[in-house]
Amino acid sequence: MLVSYTMTAKEYGETNKLVLLHTSVGRKIGYYFCHWILRVLGVVMIGLGFFTYLEDHGGQSPDWILILLGVYLCLMPLFLSRRIRTRYRQQRLDQEWQVSINESGVRILRDSGNVDSQLRWPGLEKYIESDRMFVILHNFMSFIPIPKRAVESGEIENLRNLLSQHLP
Hints:
Order of helices and strands: EHHHEEEEEEH
Distance between the termini: 20 Å
Structural class: alpha+beta
CATH architecture of the largest domain: Roll
CATH class of the largest domain: Mainly Beta
Number of helices: 4
Helix content: 40-55%
Shape: elongated
CATH topology of the largest domain: PH-domain like
Number of domains: 2
Radius of gyration: 22 Å
Strand order of the largest sheet: 1-2-3-4
Strand content: 15-25%
């Protein structure tokens, strides 16, 4: 089965999220910590900064360190999203991908033939599926994203069967 596509930055971000949420407990905790707990802490710190100002009856300026740290914590997920988009551009992932999947493994052609990788099934860890993506994990740091939009509707079930036959 041959799948050709051009990956978008949004798909790359979604792929990173899937990998974080489906590889290890530590990565899952890190994802939720960064995206939710830091935001809550940021809001609490902003509130404390203004509360100290109001408690002092407006006599002095608010505690700017608490407020600025709170704003930083609230914006941290945006900084990480920006870092993912930068990585997407640096790796030139917006070029055409050709992924061939068969009984022997996965072959990836990218960058007009300048990148040619052959991975056999024993060298692959697992696959993850979402509503919009298949992600084949080579290890916990590298992965092969396959958008479902690039797979013909009749071939999605065949791809799922081939992946589940060889990967957990």
